[in-house]
Amino acid sequence: MPVYWFALSQASAIYWDRACLIFILLHFLVYPSSNGYNSYMDKDTGSIGGIENPLPVHKELFYISVIMDMMALMLSCFLGAMVLVGVGIYILASRLYSYRGVRLKQYPVTGYLTVMICQGALVYFIVSGSVNNALDLKGEWLPAIITSLLIGGTYPLTQVYQHQQDKEDGVTTLSYKLGIKGTFVFCGIVLFVALLLLTLYFIRANQWYALIAYGIAMLPVGAYFTRWFLKVQQDPGNANFKNLMKMNYVASVCSSIAFISILIINKAG
Fold first, then answer.
1. Whole-number Å distance between alpha carbons of 14 and 83
2. Which of the residue ranges 42-46, 111-115, 245-249 has the most confident prediction, judged by mean pLDDT?
């Protein structure tokens, strides 16, 4: 959702009917379908994603995910060929990420880059192309890269508590390769680069207010990340589901507030 609000806040023009449609399409069809299909393929019994105790999965989950994908693609037709292609690529990539016959998630770098690019830059372009009714690649490549870095700087953290579960499933994640402490260091570096580029982008766009709003809103995220890292250094057992969910909630809420605030300021001006 923060990627959606960031793209919306930077749109030169917004067709609000299209903005509502792409919001519904992504958050009520594409994302849930992707998560459902991944759960069906993994058949997790331990904590995964935002679910601490997942229920057993059945074939119906697979069928529902396919139906939701078809609905998403049909709705994409109302937003233009570019959006249709973008949504199609996202769905295909998410399937290749989870499907047992390919399973990109089992490869540490390939799986990481798939999530980083598709959930970051690709979604940014999809939303931007939807609400603008056009896509300016020349002017939007930098914010698109920034969104991928923001995703890339947080995604490995979602894997720190499930190394053993992934290993038993034949999946070698980037987080597993880096180790628990290494994952925190790596994510910190990627997020630092993302924030530097975001600062550069806001300055070049003469959006000083956006830089201030984002900086203030993200203070709780930086504080929690630092506190969590220090706790993990003292006891690696603190890299658990409960602490991860707190981090996810804080980061999602704060970043959404930041970008919604920027959106309001930009459109009010």
1. 15
2. 111-115
Picking from 218, 209, 214, 219, the residue whose alpha carbon sits closest to that of residue 259 is 214
pTM of the predicted protein model: 0.93
Number of Cβ within 10 Å of residue 228's Cβ equals 20
User: Between vectors from CA 166 to CA 183 and to CA 177, what angle results, nearest 5°?
Assistant: 35
C-alpha neighbours within 13 Å on the C-beta side of residue 259? 19
Q: Can you tell me the distance from the alpha carbon of 188 to that of 226, in angstroms, rounded to the nearest whole number?
A: 9
Q: Which of 87, 194, 207 is nearest to 144 (CA)?
A: 194
Residue 75 · residue 25 · CB < 8 Å = yes
Q: How far apart are CA 174 and CA 77, in angstroms?
A: 36
Non-local (6+) Cβ contacts of 191 within 8 A are 149, 150, 153, 154
